Amino acid sequence: MKWDEILRLPSVAEALQILHPTESVCGICHLPWSISGAKYISTSSEGGVFYVCPYCFKHSSLEQVLNATVEGYMKQYENVHEEYGREFRKKYDLLKILRETAREYTETHKTNEL
């Protein structure tokens, strides 16, 4: 078993979440960002978002990545909904985020198959 696979065992990910209680986690493997790193998706010249780690972005299906993106986005929205929900939606448009995530996924997962 490779190290990246060991880290992503459910019991290991859960233990690391306990040891890093203040950190958010990857939406697929649930590792804290300080352990997994984050796959940054640029959405504008002013910034971007991240909802999955580079390993999961590379090894998961587009559907899994997009589902994790929606779930992460909605968690953020729920946390800011009452006071800043409208501003959040304007600054971080879900459809644009999904479009950019799918575009980057497609570009980085091209194969040399004929």
**What is the CA-based Rg, rounded?**
15 Å
The low-confidence parts are none
> How many DSSP E strands?
2
The spatial strand order of the largest sheet comes to 1-2
Largest sheet: 2 strands, antiparallel
Average pLDDT reading: 91
Strand percent estimate? 5-15%
**First-last Cα distance:** 32 Å
Class based on secondary structure composition and strand pairing: mainly alpha
- The sequence of SSEs as H and E is HHHEEHHH
- List the total number of helices: 6
Helix residue percentage: 55-70%
Q: Mind explaining what this structure looks like?
A:
This protein has 114 residues and is mostly helical. The chain has helices at 3-7, 10-19, 33-36, 54-59, 62-91, 94-108, and strands spanning 41-44, 47-49. Strands 1-2 form a two-stranded antiparallel ribbon. The model has no long low-confidence stretch (mean pLDDT 91).
Task: Map the helices and strands.
Elements (H helix, E strand, L loop, with lengths): L2 H5 L2 H10 L13 H4 L4 E4 L2 E3 L4 H6 L2 H30 L2 H15 L6
Question: What descriptors fit this protein?
Answer:
two-stranded antiparallel ribbon; mainly alpha; 114 residues; 6 helices; globular; 2 strands
Quick description:
The chain is mainly alpha-helical and 114 residues long.
